[in-house]
Amino acid sequence: MAKIESTADQEAKVVFRPMSVDKNIIIGISNHDTYEREHVVRAYERDSELQKPEEVVLTMLKDRLKDMRMLDIGVGAGRTTFLFAPLVKEYIGIDYSHKMIEACKRRFSERADSFRVCDARSMSTLPDDYFDFVLFSFNGIDYVPVTDRKTILMEVARVARAGAQFLFSTHNLNMDIERAFSISWTTNPKENAKQMYRRVLFRLRNRNWRHERANATHMIIDDGALGLLTSYIEPEEQVRQLEGMGFTDVKVFSMQGRQLEPADLAHAKDPWLHYLCGISKTVSTEPGKELRQAHAAYKAGRS
Q1: How many of the other CB atoms lie within 10 Å of CB of 37?
Q2: What is the CA radius of gyration of the chain?
Q3: What integer pLDDT is reported at residue 177 of this predicted model?
Q4: Which residues contact residue 242 at a Cβ distance below 8 angstroms, ignoring those fewer than 6 apart?
Q5: How far apart are CA 196 and CA 166, in angstroms?
Q6: Which partner from 79, 187, 188, 239 sits 20 to 30 angstroms from 279, CA to CA?
Q7: Where exactly are the structural domains of the chain?
């Protein structure tokens, strides 16, 4: 993550485990707790730079932003607020972490009313058909249960106007895991020992990961960064999901800001990718069969 952890550090810490209903429950609880921790908030407060794909999209929309109402989901401590808020007609930033929203209000006291505690899975306090540009940055969609991702997409479609633009990023399941856990020998014994430990830990925890990966388009990862559990998805699967739900003109960007062609998706090795798509009012805003089944499984597990 930019300025929080380097890409190399993140790649070196990912540990794959098979997905389960229990893992989906855990990801929703533990990740929220992580974002309420003071040291995590402070880490996010140190970051104020856009990622390259965000810069590219800002340039694409620059002549339209002044007439746009923008919703910044998962605003964190305001990394994207610095550059986007002054350019748009109206700016609203939301996060499900109270601590993050408190940080935003401190940092941007002149627009404190623009920030609200709100969960992207249930944005009932926001009106229908209102926003022209919706941003969910820094892979925020990856830190909720997999079954809730579609709920978020449906909520985005509800609060956005027809023809609005939606930009979000998500971790790439096609990233080069072997390279992430390879050992680059150095003259520093402690560094060598740390690399060996990470590689051995990966092997011990994931004896069958090759088989599991071969049969998965979407997996939850036990990510060492900030103690978060993270969802990764194959780019082609993410595009299929968006198009299947009715989102239009899906564009995919590498971490360097290069727009990828459909033929490039299966070979993209970036740790995460950005997706820009249009909002069509044909997108379903009602939970589907998969979501109902997941909620039923969750309730059964708690009873």
Answers
A1: 14
A2: 19
A3: 67
A4: 153, 250, 275, 277
A5: 41
A6: 79
A7: 21-172+232-302
- Return d(Cα 105, Cα 251) in angstroms, integer: 33
Cα angle value 71/149/259 (rounded, 5°): 70
Nearest to 76 by CA among 131, 115, 124: 115
pLDDT the model gives residue 88:
99
Spatial neighbors of 229 by CB under 8 A, at least 6 apart, are: 23, 26, 27, 30, 31, 143, 220, 221, 222, 223
Q: Measuring CA to CA, which residue among 100, 148, 90 is closest to residue 123?
A: 148
Examine the pLDDT at 174 and tell me if it is beyond 70.
Answer: yes
HSE, side-chain direction, 13 A CA sphere, residue 221:
28
* Helix residue ranges, H only, 174-269: 177-180, 189-205, 209-214, 235-245
Q: What token pair was written down for 260? A: 């990828």
Residue 36, pLDDT > 70, answer yes
261 or 32: which carries more pLDDT confidence? 261
DSSP strand pairing (248-253 vs 259-260):
antiparallel
Query: What was the pLDDT predicted at 196?
Result: 79
pLDDT of residue 301: 47
Architecture of the domain whose range is 21-172+232-302: 3-Layer(aba) Sandwich (3.40)
Question: Mean pLDDT over residues 125-131, rounded?
Answer: 97
Instruction: Please give the structure tokens belonging to residue 256.
Output: 């360097």
